[in-house]
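Summary for the funding panel

The consortium committed to producing paired sequence-structure records for every protein in the target list. Below we show the first two records in order, beginning with the earlier of the two.
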Amino acid sequence: MRGQWIFINRLQDISMDFTLSEDNRMIASSAREFAERELRERAPKMDQKEEFDETIVPRLAEVGFLGTLVGEQYGGTELGTLNNSIILEEIARVCASTAVTIAVHNSLVCAPIFENGTDEQKERFLPKLTSGEALGAYSVSEPDAGSDAGSMRLSATDDGDAFVLTGTKSWVTSASYAGVFLVFARSSKESKSRGITCFIVENGTPGFSVGKKEKKTGIRGSATCSLVFDGCRVSKKNVLGEPGKGFHLALRYLDSGRIGIGAQATGIAQACLEVATKYSQERQQFDRPISEFQLIQWKLAEMALQTSAARVLVQRAASLKDAGQPHAKEASMAKLFASRAANFCAKEGVQIHGGYGYIKEFDIERYFRDARITEIYEGTSQVQQLVISRHVLGKV
């Protein structure tokens, strides 16, 4: 009964959100029902096995979650960034691993191809991506080029009708099961922000292989691997955007990616709040539920506050993007605050659970591990502070 009360209360929270239309609320409800039905049992199993359950991909495609930022002519639903963030929050509330898979696929692969690709590229790749025939992966980072992406060394040598890629990439989400990769490589020796080109690389291309799969603390239901390029020839027809201007393309879509990770983090925070609330009402100490103790009430109040504030920041950034307005500062604010909120709520959720919060039988333990990465990937918290400060100081 209490679980049902939380579910109904969550519906009331959404219905009272002044930023959402009726269509937005319907999408939120649909995404929540999908997550409960398809992911509730899968999520802990994926975490335990450290494997993404690929049988979920056709189901994600059926409900349109793999084409939210792509036009209908290519099989997409073109729901926009706000609706995409709503979906991601509801998915992450149950399975953060599946949420990051969707986030990268939509914001960092499908959207760049849809908005910058040639007609041939769109017709060739987008129907595969929106139908679930192929998942997308995005590759900027290297072993020695993380926050300093301009230091990348993966080389792209001009060779007639193709570029030859040589080197490695790291920290690539979904790499072991993705079919289409956006790969950024240095095609000339110009300054750090120049001479970088974006390539669309298909899995199975000669000279390209997926390397080591990382053993991670959290988000274990999503594969994170290195990529190896050993004389990999990529046709010039697979260059996305203009040669040598890939760095600006990467930064542009990282803003969208940060909104997606902000939504993921908000979903984790919401999940922590819900399970902590439920546990506090069931756990008896000193002959009464611990929810009757003021200290627990204050923890829940702060968790609710930070979760709601994170949601507003994420939805504001998403709405600005949909309106075609500048949103880089707002995207960084959303990602910074929401990731902090996720980690705060996870920590407090474990504390409310006490010793039970430290064992794997309780979902809060998984949420605690999943939350940590949200302050690291898609730009660390320190990078977000740098971006925000530059906007505040007028240095952009």
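The next record, for a separate protein in the list, is shown here:
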Amino acid sequence: MTLDDFFNHIQQYYSDDLPFVVYRKPNKSELVALCQKDSTLYQILDFTESGFVFSPFDSNEKSILIPYSEADIFKSEVAVSNDTRTTYSANHIPENCKDEHIGLVRKAIDTIMIGELQKVVVSRAEPITLSDENPIAIFKNLLNKYESAFVYCWYHPKIGLWLGATPETFIQIEGNKLSTMALAGTQKFNGELEVNWQNKEIKEQQIVTDFIVESLKSSVEKLKVFKTETIKAGNLLHLKTEITANFTLGSLNLKQIIQNLHPTPAVCGLPKETAKKFIFANENYNRSYYTGFLGELNLKEKKSRNTNRNNVENDAYSSIKTTSNLFVNLRCMQLKGATAIIYVGGGITEDSNPEKEWEETVSKSEVIKSIL
């Protein structure tokens, strides 16, 4: 299928008010679209389902599924194209927005200092006005700019429309192998990956890593934690630690693992339930699907031992593996008519500086604004 035909299909589903998701996995050239045949709202029951899952931050709310069995699937190769940039009004951020966020950070620090929390992630929503509300144009810009991110556009008429380019893996499963990552700490990219990290960011990263390891160790074997490295995502740098493990086929309870992990301290805090209560009580808005997770759930893929497509032995040595590729919903926006709502936040520890935390959210919002 040509790229033009591919996007024409997506545009038609959107015009017909039918659910769809279109995405590209990190460092891949293939675009995939699942276009649901009707407007039924399917919900996850136990994570044994197969399809594309879209989950909210609040783990007590239902996750939404576009089932493979109820969707037309289209694929195409994508190349970097001409900029399809739309424009937005340079909305001035109200002074009270800055004051409110700094006040929220101070309250978080006070709560940490009295021992109720070890870390908490606080966030804000920033609306901007678009001159062109076509999500396909925005999605193309995300594809052009963020090759190493999971880039997506998701729509359901009963839920809404979301787009994003997230740098963070939640869980990846292939056969009996599981991988995830701890991603925390933020600073601006100034041309160099070799940078110094402050104690605040290093401690924040370790909190996330320790939580993931503790949450997984009773469910898996051969758990391995890799060396922490600095990675670039847009105009920002983060600390990343990869974590891998094996499990016996048939033994993995994905629902239980998701319940243990989500939301991680990278997007919520620690202790998890206390941090969630603080967020619900103090952020004064509904995160909805921001800092939730999304991606391929229980996809059956044919794997070949030999990568030479012309090798006649390929079919003889191929096998069907179940894969799941789930990502944390960061660097995202929600479209409501001509308004794009951008969601940004940051992790707060006892070493946080309220003014710098505000500046970090401004830097993160600029990452998304840069594609508009």
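Regarding this second record: Residues 18 and 131 are 24 Å apart (CA to CA). Helices lie at 3-15, 95-113, 135-145, 199-216, 254-261, 272-282, 314-317, 354-369.
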